[in-house]
Amino acid sequence: MGFRKKNKSPPVLSHEFVIQNHADMVSCVAMIILLGLMFEVTAKFAIMFITVQYNVTQSLDERAEQVNLYQYGPKDIATVFFYLLIAVILHALIQEYILDKMNRRLHLSKTKHSKFNESGQLAAFYLLSFIWGCSILTAEEFATNPTFLWEGYPHTHMVFQVKFFYICQIAYWLHALPELYFQKVRKEDIPRQLYYICLYVFHITGAYILNLHRLGLVLLVPHYLVELLFHASRLFYFSDENKQKGFTLWALLFVIARLLTLTLSVLTFGFGLPRAENQGFSLAKGNFNVLTIRMTCLAAICLTQAWMMWKFINFQLKKWREHSQSQASKKKAFSPKSKPHKKDLARGSANGVVKSDDKTSPRARKAKAS
């Protein structure tokens, strides 16, 4: 038996080298930032990447203790960059130690392999974000008092969990852009993934900058639940094509989530914020409660929901057509053979085939003629 030839390592800094070793390279950058905490000269810069910035200490009237709240600012870009690196590392770990092992057992095609990896990564993210978002909402008053979405606007101060949640959300969806290159996503799938990645970045960043983090958090939690159900159902479908019940539940919750999003958005931008005490535009105070911004935000949300519903309807129609075609093909396969038509009998006689009603053989006809 001959020895197996070792695969030659690609040239340094080539495309294949970067794709194969991108997780190690990103880990080195993250380790350099962490090592900066050990030295006094670089600690002030390194801590800007790792910890959440712009903390404000406030004392409540009812309690004597002080509460640490947070605002947003330009230094958040450094924090988002660091956790973008962490997201790339976690993405590689999930891919290597979980998804790749499952792919070897399932023996999927290239198309299903790409979709399986996408659903696996997104399902893990949606599950973590949904649990995290629910834990934050349980501490708020939304369940008993929905008016907290607009009361006291502008909501310039956030608790640590809310700000860190938004930092991680923005970092994750920004990390998805270079992952299109690292994961060698097919050219046919790149436009579809770019659409929803850019929509996530646009909406989440907009809610964060416009001090609408309460509304954004309330809208993200049910949306993430619906997306989690879809990608989990797709994972089960790839393992066994007969498991399709999850898609029915997903379709129902998808429509409910769209209606809930539109209802809360119209309620906030159409009725709540116009009646709030603080009206006007002020960058220093973080107040964006003017008609132009309110209508722009509402229009962006409505257009996004309409686009999602359009994609959903096309997806359901495509599945319905495929199902109807498969049912029609099954009926044709099991239907009894139809009787031959007169045209077919005429064609058969013209080709030298004796008609079925002519029961006499050629020998008998010769005998009668003689």
Précis, in short:
By secondary structure, the chain is mostly helical. It is 68% helix and 4% strand. Belongs to the TRAM family.
Multimerization status: single chain
Summed up, the domain count is: 2
Strand content: under 5%
Query: How much is the average pLDDT?
Result: 86
Overall morphology: flat
Please trace the helix and strand order, writing H or E for each element.
HHEEHHHHHHEEHHH
- Number of separate strands: 4
Give a written overview of the molecule:
- The chain has 370 residues and is mostly helical.
- It has two domains: 12-50, no CATH class; 51-103 and 112-325, no CATH class.
- Helices cover 68% and strands 4% of the residues.
- The protein is built from eleven helices and four strands, in the order ααββααααααββααα.
- It has a two-stranded antiparallel sheet. It has a two-stranded antiparallel ribbon with strand order 3-4.
- Helix 4 (110-138) runs antiparallel to helix 5 (160-182), helix 4 runs antiparallel to helix 7 (213-239) and helix 5 (160-182) packs antiparallel against helix 6 (190-209).
- The longest helix is centred in the C-terminal third of the chain and has 44 residues, at 291-334.
- It is flat.
- Residues 1-6 and 352-359 have low confidence and may be disordered.
